[in-house]
Write a structure and sequence with these properties.
This protein is of the alpha+beta class. The protein folds into 4 domains: 69 residues, no CATH class; 48 residues, Arc Repressor Mutant, subunit A; 156 residues, Nucleotidyltransferase, domain 5, CATH 3.30.420.10; 65 residues, no CATH class. The chain contains 15 helices and 12 strands. A 5-stranded mixed β-sheet has the order 3-2-1-4-5, with helices on both faces. A 4-stranded antiparallel β-sheet has the order 6-9-10-11. The termini are far apart. The relative contact order is 0.06.
Length: 444
């Protein structure tokens, strides 16, 4: 592939501009007086130097200096000399320079205009004394460009070893949905494969809780298997004990990014930007989560997974995901991983609370006792059970309305005969040498 030759910098472009005029003169055999005439002819015309919008004229002495410099050193001799105070900022005193550097070290994300505006408002800098360009150049020369980490660490481009090795998880806030007469929030939960940029799960919900993340993770595990690790931020959605325990039981390494370091999650943020431009910014008139979900699925299947990705050197996420290596996980393993134990005290009516629901125990002797409730995640089959002293007792959803219909003994109704049981009476009969009284009571 041919490559066009261009000047390596502005100084070489200026030297080439000067050589256009004095170069032909340096290669000619000039008679007496011809050089002066040629220089006067050049001085009478206007030319536009590199990087300038307007034309200008140069004097005879300037052309003469260029001519003899070119004879002595060629193109390199025509390069303009750099200013001796270049990059120093002539208006910056040592004290002001140190102040600006200290502010950038402590606030690496603050822009140069913001820093200058704040210093002027505080009265520590005269307005107009220093331009933002000068301050930006100062920071660049000091290795403190905006976003640079204070420890000087260089952020490297990294990627998982293979597809299926690492998943990114995050939540995107979409536009609120107008459902009926109320407005409901829209939260898009996603899991992105690091090496292939393939979305292994993407769901629309109204909430942003740990249980939502577990539902999404469960769906991805059933569809694709388990990754080696999962990379999340430090939000409360991803810091719960249930998610940590689930990952440990499945052998998935749970990784949290460093606080206040959004650049570390650039792949996920880049996907959210693509999703907003192609889908979320065009949801006007959508009034249900189902309508949002079908649009998300269509965006992934018909566009995102099929489009060449710059981070994959032109490959599509679907092609890169084709060789994914995920560990298969069966339902018993999922049930074991997503089973959680809770300690609950049984109420006097034999009920316990779990997951926002009331559950009924039929064993009345457990009232007031602390039991262990073993429950699987909502995405798995099976009701919770109570465990006490090594015994398991089934729990059923409490139904107060059905309980209100249970027949009670009416007033005046004769109760069924009670089973005779009188410990002291039995001893008294034995001491008196008479037959037990329960035989008398049951004598035909």
């Amino acid at each position: 592939m041919p490559v066009a030759l261009i000047p390596r910098d502005h100084a070489e472009a200026v030297a080439l501009f000067r050589a256009e005029f004095v170069g032909p003169l340096a290669r000619r055999e000039l008679d007496r007086g011809e050089l002066a005439a040629a220089l006067r002819e050049l001085a009478a015309t206007s030319h536009r130097p590199p990087g300038r919008r307007a034309t200008r004229r140069f004097g005879v002495s300037t052309y003469e200096r260029w001519y003899y410099a070119y004879l002595a050193g060629g193109l390199a001799a025509l390069r303009p000399d750099a200013r001796s105070d270049r990059g120093r900022g002539r208006a910056l005193t040592p004290e002001l320079r140190e102040l600006l550097l200290d502010i950038r070290r402590e606030h690496p994300t603050a822009s140069a205009p913001l820093i200058l505006r704040t210093l002027v408002a505080d009265g520590r800098l005269q307005a107009g004394l220093v331009s933002s360009t000068t301050v930006t150049r100062l920071y660049r020369d000091a290795g403190l460009e905006r976003g640079t980490r204070p420890d000087g660490h260089t952020r490297l481009r990294w990627q998982a070893e293979h597809a299926g090795a690492l998943w990114h998880g995050d939540v995107c806030h979409g536009p609120a949905l107008r459902i009926g007469g109320t407005t409901r929030p829209l939260r898009i939960h996603g899991l992105l494969d690091d090496a292939s940029r393939y979305m292994v799960a993407l769901e629309a919900r109204h909430t942003e809780r740990e249980t939502d993340m577990l539902d999404l993770f469960l769906a991805a595990l059933r569809r694709h298997g388990a990754p080696d690790g999962i990379y999340l931020d430090n939000g409360s959605t991803y810091n719960g004990d249930s998610l940590r325990l689930c990952c440990e039981r499945l052998g998935v390494t749970l990784i949290h990014s460093r606080p206040r370091d959004p650049q570390a999650r650039g792949k996920m943020e880049r996907f959210w930007r693509t999703l907003r431009a192609g889908c979320l910014d065009h949801l006007a008139g959508v009034t249900s989560l189902h309508d949002v979900q079908v649009r998300l699925d269509a965006f992934l299947d018909q566009h995102y997974h099929r489009a060449p990705h710059g981070g994959l050197l032109g490959k599509t996420p679907a092609d890169a995901w084709a060789g994914a290596q995920c560990r298969a996980v069966d339902e018993p393993a999922l049930a074991a991983a997503l089973t959680v134990h809770y300690r609950r005290r049984v109420r006097k009516d034999g009920t316990v609370d779990l997951g926002g629901r009331v559950w009924q125990l039929d064993q009345g002797f457990l009232a007031g006792r602390v039991v262990t409730v073993v429950a699987a995640h909502a995405g798995l089959a099976g009701d919770p059970v109570a465990v006490h002293d090594g015994h398991r007792y089934e729990l059923r959803p409490a139904d107060p309305v059905a309980a209100s219909r249970i027949r009670r003994r009416r007033r005046g109704e004769v109760p069924p005969p009670a089973t005779p049981f009188d410990p002291t009476g039995a001893l008294l009969d034995k001491s008196a040498g008479r037959p037990p009284r329960h035989r008398k009571e049951h004598r035909p």
